[in-house]
Amino acid sequence: MDGTTAVDYGPEEAAMQAYLREGEKRAQALGNRGPIRFTADGGLHPDILEAYWRCGFYVFEGVLGPDELADIERDLRDILDRLPVEKGAPLDARGRPALASDCTAPALLWSKPLGDPFGGTKLANGRHPVKMFEPVPTGDAPKEIVYLILGSLQFSEAALRVYGHPQLLAVAAAINGPDFTPFNEALFIKEPGRGASVAWHQDGTTHWDSPEWDQGVHGFNFMGQLYGCTPANGVWVVPGSHKLGRIDIASLVAKAGSERLPDAVPMIAAPGDVAITNRQSLHGSFANTSRDWRVTVNFGFHRRKSVLGVNGGGVHNEAAVYDAERIRERARLIGYAIDARRRRFPGETPYVYKPHADAGDSYRWDAAARAGIKDYNLLDLSI
User: What CATH number does the domain located at 10-379 have?
Assistant: First the structure.
């Protein structure tokens, strides 16, 4: 983190830069980063499990190699080229049908540059109660930008292949059990000098008052980093907050005197690192006033017992009771991802997803499968 900015915070700039430096020091002292490691019997290394459950997040280093990062970047450039010329427009800048223009499911989320579209609103069940500081963008900034793309696996085969990464799926099984289920997938885009903030929040919605609540009941997210992330453009987490239940975020911010929560730390990652974050952790990100891009391939998983028979939270789609057939239908993306990855990286040993193996289900990634996953995120399992 070199402190250079594309846009500064105005009167808040000095305080913000000091906060970034101190946060980085706290993050480096946590001991929650390193390569994915397994024990001789195939279990996730206990040091990783200890650090994850202690902190609520862990940074796996060097998961995605140069070829895979190049694949993701190619898809990213195509996606950016195909975005609507403005919010609601049916065409891209070349006059072609814009990305997601034919989708029924939500796909493109827009914000004013350096804005906070969710903070202090009732959106997403009001789980972002405090608005983040919104710096003033440069005069050449567009009126609105796309900062989040939902249902991203239908737009990027490279992202689909990350979703089928055998080591990451093995981590998912270690955390949530071999019958783990999908959650949702997204592509976060933090453009330099324009990227929106995400106000402090906890992702969980459904199980806060359940008698079976525990520190992992709302699942987790993986966050694969294309360009890496810094204190200035990355996600910040309050370590250990996943153990505290539902947190009064507004009171915490009021006590701190600003949205710079004193105990939070940034996720710092290099290109190819993949972080895992407990969805109950208190987390958020600041507007990207830095000169660095952050592009995150985001996807999450749940425990099956946290989802089966549960009335969904209604954040990512309409609330519904999640039965076994819905879970099975949504989990076909795991099967497609494993096969797509097998074709691209034949030297890897593909992951065997237990629910598919037990049911005798097989999935082939081909043109028909590609057409068949349009609007798949209508079936997201949001708790």
Answer: 2.60.120.620
Report the pLDDT value the prediction gives residue 4, as an integer from 0 to 100: 58
d(CA 48, CA 42): 13
Distance CA 123, CA 186 (A): 18
List b or e across 333-369, with b for residues whose CB sees 16 or more CB atoms inside 10 angstroms: bbbbbbbbbbebbeeeebbebebbeeeeeebebeeeb
**273 Rama sector, left if φ>0, alpha if ψ -120 to 50, beta otherwise:** beta
> Is the sign of the CA dihedral 215, 106, 283, 76 positive or negative?
positive
Question: For the chain, where are the E strands, in sequence order?
Answer: 33-34, 57-60, 108-111, 145-150, 181-190, 198-201, 220-225, 235-237, 265-266, 274-278, 283-285, 294-302
Amino acid at residue number 164: G
The first and second tokens of residue 164, run together, are 């089928």
Mean pLDDT of the chain: 95
- The pLDDT, as a whole number, for residue 133 is 93
Q: Is the pLDDT of residue 21 over 50?
A: yes
Token representation of residue 352: 């065997």
Number of residues that this document lists for the chain: 383
- Whole-model pTM over 0.90: yes
- Could you tell me the strand order of the sheet in which 265-266 lies? 198-201, 283-285, 235-237, 265-266
